[in-house]
Design a protein that fits this description.
The complex is a heterodimer.
Chain A lengths: L1 H6 L21 E2 L2 E6 L2 E6 L3 E3 L2 E4 L5 E5 L2 E8 H22 L5 H13 L2 H5 L4 E9 L4 E7 L5 E4 L2 E4 L3 H11 L6 H18 L15 E6 L2 E4 L2 H17 L10
Antiparallel strand pairs in A: 1-4, 1-7, 2-3, 2-11, 3-12, 4-5, 6-7, 7-8, 8-9, 9-10, 12-13
Chain B lengths: L8 H18 L3 E6 L2 E7 L8 E3 L4 E7 L1 H21 L7 H17 L8 E7 L8 E5 L6 E3 L2 E4 L3 H11 L6 H12 L15 E7 L8 E4 L1 H9 L27 H8 L9
Antiparallel strand pairs in B: 1-2, 1-8, 2-9, 3-4, 4-5, 5-6, 6-7, 9-10
Helix pairs in contact in B: 4-5
The chains are: A alpha+beta, B alpha+beta.
């Protein structure tokens, strides 16, 4: 990235002169991303909807990407800018690995992403914010970790679970009641899909599982074996089993009152 | 004020070439061979930290003989060139030919510039194709010329003798174990004709394996996997057999970390990253 900024600075996100603006720009926005840790790893999932104002811009957008072997990033906010940011982030991790002969630490990766978000601040002020969620397996500590960000690049590590995007309020509420520290990998996968379902239930900008078009959330899991994205058969099975239960209990599983 | 002696351009160039050749000849040789599933790099390297071979991009590997600081400089330049190309356009648009041309330009400029000493390096840039016919190997001598090689190539100290040896014995469609064995045989021959033993821990081996499911095909072969291949006696040995000791560069990711870069462009290709 340093080389890029010397060599072709115009290619860096956030390095553009924008004309003065009246009103908000209409551009596709990605919506909800959720993540949860379990002993041995972390899961990161996102819904498939992109919205532009009150319109659905895309039904099957992908918002969760592997950053490298042991980490992934899910994006909420202006889709075009976010995808470019992720592309550059992936490139930078790979470049570092090839030049130095070693991978960046998870903290190092998280810090780098923080700087990249901050460099987009001027755009964020004009309504083109990018707010990712970064999750990875910390090889040194042997556990999954989640980092959330704000538009200014502020980074905070989340313990247990986290969500970002327009449906994050509902997703977080859902996970708050369902999350336990001793989840298995399979339970953690179900948890994040439940949370996405709840987010889609109450937030118009978040898409639920689309059975008719076979569009299901993107679900990824990172363990000591590295990054893995669930194939459609796996994610559709989780989504369908949840859907089945919701036919009886539309509000989903009930937590104990006391 | 003294007048400098006149030196004819022919003489000046010959002297520089001589200087570079001597520098390269001091280093140990390395060989690059095609085998059925890809391209293998084999060299004698007592150091575990200073690599002679490295990954440039998905399908492109780099090998160098000569002065470490000079070829390391060129290697990093190559990684930058490839990464910038791939980011600007697409990962498929980074080719060994393009990279070899950039190296040729750089080496040629340095070689003919009177202000600098010529680089004492000889490079090999190799790209593994989808099919064996698509493999490309380019050798770049110190003066900035490009030689398109097929089958096998040797650079470094004893290169001529080793290439002759390899040319006679190398054939298409060798297994990795066979190619590795041939390479080690070639490297163990001394200029005076005698043979010596090179222990496995002094060998640096890397492959560009076209059968790897990941987008990044470069992989170092170390530790037990190397020992197993050396013992395999020319039999068939799977390249991607689970190795107990992995390289620390993490080039061996369980799923591709890179082929999703493409699906970010299309946005809709759900199953592209899973094998």
């Amino acid at each position: 990235m340093d080389f890029l900024s010397d060599h072709s600075p115009e290619m860096l996100p956030g390095n553009r002169n924008l004309p003065p603006l009246h009103g908000a720009i209409e551009a596709p926005h990605g919506t909800t991303i959720v993540a949860a840790t379990f002993p041995g790893g972390v899961v990161l999932a996102g819904d498939r909807r992109a919205t532009m104002g009150n319109m659905i811009a895309q039904r099957d957008i992908e918002k969760v990407f592997p950053a490298d072997e042991y980490s992934a990033v899910g994006i909420a906010g202006t889709a075009g800018l976010a995808v470019e940011m992720v592309k550059l982030f992936q490139l930078e991790l790979e470049h570092f690995e090839k030049v130095e002969g070693a991978q960046l630490s998870l903290e190092g990766k998280a810090n780098r992403l923080s700087t990249m978000i901050r460099s987009n601040l001027a755009m964020a002020m004009q309504g083109l914010a990018v707010v990712p969620l970064f999750a990875g397996f910390d090889v040194d500590r042997g556990k999954g970790r989640i980092f959330s960000y704000d538009v200014t690049g502020g980074r905070s590590e989340e313990h247990g679970y986290a969500a970002t995007g327009s449906g994050s309020i509902f997703a977080r509420g859902s996970m708050k009641k369902l999350y336990r520290e001793d989840l298995t990998e399979q339970q953690a996968l179900t948890l994040v899909v439940q949370a996405l379902y709840d987010a889609a239930d109450d937030d118009s900008a978040t898409g639920g599982p689309d059975v008719a078009r076979r569009i299901y959330p993107i679900v990824t899991v990172i363990t000591d074996e590295g990054f893995r994205k669930l194939v459609e058969a796996e994610s559709s099975e989780i989504a369908r089993s949840i859907l089945e239960r919701r036919l009886e209990q539309p509000d989903g599983p009930r937590a104990a009152l006391l | 004020m003294s007048t400098p002696f006149y030196v004819s351009p022919q003489q000046a160039m010959a002297d520089r070439a001589e200087y570079a050749r001597k520098g390269i000849a001091r280093g140990r040789s390395l060989v690059v061979l095609q085998y059925a599933d890809g391209i293998v790099f084999v060299g004698e390297n007592p150091s575990r930290a200073l690599h002679k071979f490295s990954e440039i991009y998905d399908r492109i590997g780099f090998a160098a003989a000569g002065k470490y600081n000079e070829y390391e400089n060129l290697r990093i330049g190559g990684v930058r060139y490839a990464d910038l190309r791939g980011y600007t356009y697409d990962r498929d648009d980074v080719t060994a030919r393009g990279l070899a041309n950039v190296y040729a330009q750089t080496l040629g400029t340095i070689f003919s510039s009177a202000a600098e000493k010529p680089y004492e390096v000889e490079l090999v840039v190799a790209e593994v194709g989808v099919e064996p016919e698509g493999d490309q190997i380019y050798r770049l001598p110190h003066d900035g010329s490009i030689v398109d090689e097929h089958g096998s190539v040797a650079v470094g100290g004893n290169a001529e003798q080793i290439s002759t040896f390899l040319d006679q014995r190398h054939r298409d469609g060798m297994t990795l174990a066979e190619a590795l064995k041939l390479a080690v045989q070639a490297l163990s021959r001394d200029p005076n004709g005698s043979e010596r033993e090179i222990p496995a821990e002094r060998l640096e081996v890397a492959v560009l394996d076209r059968t790897r499911p990941q987008q990044r095909k470069f992989k170092r072969i170390v530790g037990r996997q190397l020992a197993r291949l050396l013992e395999a006696d020319g039999g068939s040995a799977p390249t991607d057999a689970p190795s107990d000791i992995e390289d620390d560069e993490g080039a061996d990711s369980p799923t591709s970390t890179t082929d999703v870069t493409k699906s970010t462009d299309s946005g809709g290709d759900v199953e592209s990253s899973e094998e």
